[in-house]
Amino acid sequence: QVHLVESGGGSVQAGGSLRLSCTISGYSYSTKCTAWFRQAPGKEREGVATICTPGFSRYFAASVKGRFTISEDDAKKTVYLQMNSLAPEDTAMYYCAADVYTLQPLVARSFGYWGQGTQVNVSS
User: Nearest-5° angle of CA 113, CA 90, CA 96?
Assistant: First the structure.
């Protein structure tokens, strides 16, 4: 059974940084895309960043490109989302998701495995 656990959320002032972690257990497929999505109250879930293996291809939403990076530590089975230059509009619940390789790596319906989410609050 695939299980995803997020951590690292919290409150930060605008301009600050946070690093989210997503630890995955029970995943045994030969390809994997791991994505971070976010959802603010009253808004649709938005794909933020995705990393796919093998190959470590990375994909970013335009709204976070240049500010967020995504990486994976295979030994720790953990994917990280480093968020820099945070702004109030980044405030949301952040979810980790995983599934086999997809041609739509920032689309929520591409992912069947989801974590419970971690809250990020950015104050001005």
Answer: 10
Q: Across the beta sheet with 78-83, what order do the strands follow?
A: 3-7, 18-25, 78-83, 68-73
CA distance 117 to 16: 20
Q: Which residues, including other chains, have CB under 8 Å from residue 7's CB and lie 6 or more apart?
A: 20, 21, 23, 118
Specify the higher pLDDT residue, 56 or 62: 62
**Residue 22 token pair:** 């997503």
**Dist CA 77 CA 26 (whole Å):** 10
